[in-house]
Structure formats: structure tokens, C-alpha cells
Design brief:
heterodimer, A: about 325 residues, mainly alpha, two-stranded antiparallel ribbon, 2 strands, about 75% helix, B: about 250 residues, alpha/beta, Rossmann fold, 2 domains, 6-stranded mixed sheet, 4-stranded antiparallel sheet, 10 helices, about 40% helix
Amino acid sequence: MKRGLLVFILFMCILAAAPLYLQQPFLFHLLIMIMMYATMSIGWNVIGGYAGQVSFGNAAFFGVGAYTTAVLLVNYSVNPWLGMLAGCILSVGLAVIVGYPCFRLRGHYFAIATIAVGEIMVVIFTNWDYVGAAVGIYMPIVKESFANFEFHSSKIPYYYIILAMLLFAIAVCYGVEESRLGYYLRAIKDDPDGARSLGIDIQKYKMIAFSISAVLTSICGTFYGQYVLYIDPSSTMDLMMSIHLCIIALIGGIGKIFGPVVGAFVFIPLMELTRVYLGSEGQGIDMIIYSLLVILIAIWRPQGLWALFSKGGK
Amino acid sequence: MSADILIVDNVTKRFGGLTANANISFSMNEGEIIGLIGPNGAGKSTLFNCISCFYNADGGRIIFEGQEITRKDPESICRMGIGRTFQIVRIFRDMNVLENIMIGAFLRNPRRKDAQARSEEVADVFRFTDKLYLKATSLTISEQKRLEVARVFATGPKIMLLDEMMAGLNIHEIKESVELVLRLRGMGMTLVLVEHVMEGIMPIANRVVVLDYGEKIAEGTPDEVINNEKVIAAYFGQKYAKRREHKTRIQ
């Protein structure tokens, strides 16, 4: 494990030093997207990977984070950092409201219910004039500063903010894994009835996991809004985004802290590059390629790519 | 005689038109081993599930330490101090032996360090000390059953309900499991054993409750029960019971 820690620190140093050896804005954009998806996918991993409750509705939390911050900023001039906090609170609220009925469903039925929830959110936000309906919301352009959470001259501040968020997500995930919560979630995934027989309130622990998942996704929503300065329902709560979060964790390694990080570093460049180079060759060729990758990984490395790096798939 | 720790009072459980348990009553004292026996489909496991609240009884009451628990849920029952195992082995398949026990130990030891320390003690009692880091699925069936008991034991129960702990084991393993049950009783545990294996349960049970077709047909010490006509009829059929009765009369 000591060696693992060393590799992790080295990796983080390389990431933190990126502005020293990278210049092209596109590469920064790519790294920002990678880290944003890694953060969210770690969030997905807490509920989908550790607790085994596959959610296809996590994009809803991303949307809630983005919209809460944007609406507060545009209509009430609330600072985006406070907006981020408010977004987290509302996301946890949503997680509890959705989780309460849905966690009674088992296996695939929970996954199906979360798709429905995600789609309902899209429909509501597309028709709700107060939040800009289908037109979306433009963030006001203000003076660039950390406090305003807006930067125009460079992507590097955004880069460091998302790097910090990724570290936060890793720390949270580590805390989960090492504590009673992590053990309980794995027990719930393995055998819910067995878990109950050992005194585990499975409803409660699934709810906690879902809330953690919601927070980690919601902060990325806020980040995305401040980064792109424009949000609309299709860019913030699309079903495809929820599926990507799941696929990233799947590729990297489900139920492992660094699985989603590895997954994001493979999947996002692949997605972006196939889109850039092959996107014009015909609709969906990028999708075909990464679907193929998912199939190959499912066949050859069902534990995910992370298993390549760690001994014995641990 | 100490106060009854568990009272099963007129418990009835129906599945649609089928009555799996009809008005079953018995009670048990602290430190006792009760055997719950009966042919297949007699309603033993149903009664077990009622006591551990995996099912809620349709009629009657179950009282644990003076508190009615009939309509509670399994997780609160475990917290109150009733632990159970399952007929078909249920261990956490993706975890190693230590982690399996820790899931149980976490109930009373929220901190990981404490839970681990407690689990190592429990592993010692159940002779798992040299197997802590093996995958649970790599154990033999007999060891898996023992692990399940260890896991429940780690939750710190006052009563343990063990469902067919000896089924499918060979004679040597049955002996081991009898020994284990006696060791548990030695530590002050109250036990209910559902069992098919007579040679396992008869020597160790203080009392035996016999079920057949969802009803209690006999209760008493193992010797009393073994000579009970109804019990013999239930196990070997009416004909055999009559023939046997005839034979004893001649003798």
C-alpha cells in the first residue's frame, strides 16, 4: 500500500505541475473534463459501486447543482460558492426524496426508477420559465477572481479548482472505504438480507451513500456552470451523462477508489478525440468505438482497468 | 428458574391459504438450548423467520425480554440481541473471513479499529485465526456455516437462532459443530437450533419442540420426544407408529 501511496502522490504532482509543461488550451480543457468526470464518477461509485445500487439518474444532481448556482447568481446575485453549497443541500434533498421510495426497489428496478427520475427532471427544467426553460441560463460576465468563480484569460484557475475537487472526492471516497459505512455498503451490495440480519439498516445506509454521491456530483454541476458560463437542460442533465458516469466507473474498476480516475483518463480522451476526429465521418462512430472498448473490457478485465495496476486485482 | 427470555405465544403465519404456523407457543430460559425439529415443510424456518422478524406473524405475539417484538424489522431485532443464521449459507462472498466477521462486529463497535479487534477475538473463538485473510468463498461448506455463526456472534446477541447448522455436514464436522454449540452455551448464550440431523441435536438440546404441518405436536426433553407417538408418526408415518406400538405392547 505504501508503494500505492507514493504512485498516487507522484501522479498528483504531475497533474499539479501541468501548467509548467502544457500550453494548448484544448489540453487543459481535456484535463478539466477528465477530472470533472472523474470526480462525478467517484460520486457514482459510492452508490453504484460500493453499495451496488446502479443509478442512471446522477446527472439530475449535476443539473441541480448547476441550476441552483445559476438561478441564485442571476436572480439574487448570490456568490457562486454559496450557490454551490445551496446546490449541495438541494441535491441531498433530492437524493432523499428519490431514495426513500426507490430504495425499496431491488436490482434493476432501482436503476429503471432512476432513469425515470432523471428524465422527469429534464422535462421539468425544459418547461419551467423561471429557470430559463429550453433556452437555458447565461451567467453574467463579471470581473475575474477566485471569489467570483469566473476566469476569462486562462483556464488554469479552473484547472486547479477542479483538481482540488477531485482530491476532495478521493478523500471522501477514502473516508467511506475505511469506515463502517464502506463495509456496510459492501455488505448491502453482497447480500441485503444477510446485512439486515446483522442489524444493518440498509435503507439508511443507502440513503447516506446516495447523498454523498449527490454532493460530489452537485459540486461539479456548479463548476460546469461557472466554467462554460451557460447551462441548459440538455447539457446538464442528459441521460447520456448519467450513463457515462457509470461506464467510466465500469471501465476503471467498480468499487475501487481510483477506478473512476483511471476510467476517466481513458474514456474522456477517447470520447473527445473520436468526436473531434471521427465525429464528422458519420453520426455515432465515436460511440461505436467506445462501446467496443466497454465490451472488450467486460470480457477481458471485468474488474476494470484498475486491476492492471494493482497486484492481484486488489 | 430464571425468567423467560423469549416467549412465543400463539404465533400464526399464513401464506395465502396455507397456514405455515398455527398457534405455536413455547418459551425459553436464559442459557437453554432448544431444538426445533420436524419433517420437511413443518414450518420450522417460517417460525424462525417470524421470531427474527423477516416475516411478521399474522397472529399471536413474540416477546423478548419482556418486550413485544412481533412487528419489528430484522435489523432492530438484531440490535436488541437476537441473531440468526440462514438455512442456505449466506456469507458475504466478496469479502474475506475477517471482513465478514467485522460486518457483524460493527454493530456494537462503530470504529473500525475496535471492530477489527473484536473480530479477531471472535475469530479466535471460532478457530478462524489462521484463515482471517482467506476469501470467504474459499472455505469449505462446514467452515462457511461456522463463519456465518461467527458473524452473528460478533453482533453480540443474547439469543442465537441457528438454522440447520449441521445439514450436509459429515460426521466429523457434525461433532465439531456440536462442540461449538456447547462452547457457545458455556459462554452463556441461549440457542435455538433448527435441525434435521437428530444425532447432532438430541444429545445437546435441553428441550425439543416438534412441529408438523405447521402445528406444535410435542415438546419436552429429547428422550420424551423421541418416544412420543405423534412424533414417530410424523417422521416415519402412521403405519410404522402403529406397528411399533404393537411391538412394544407384545414385549
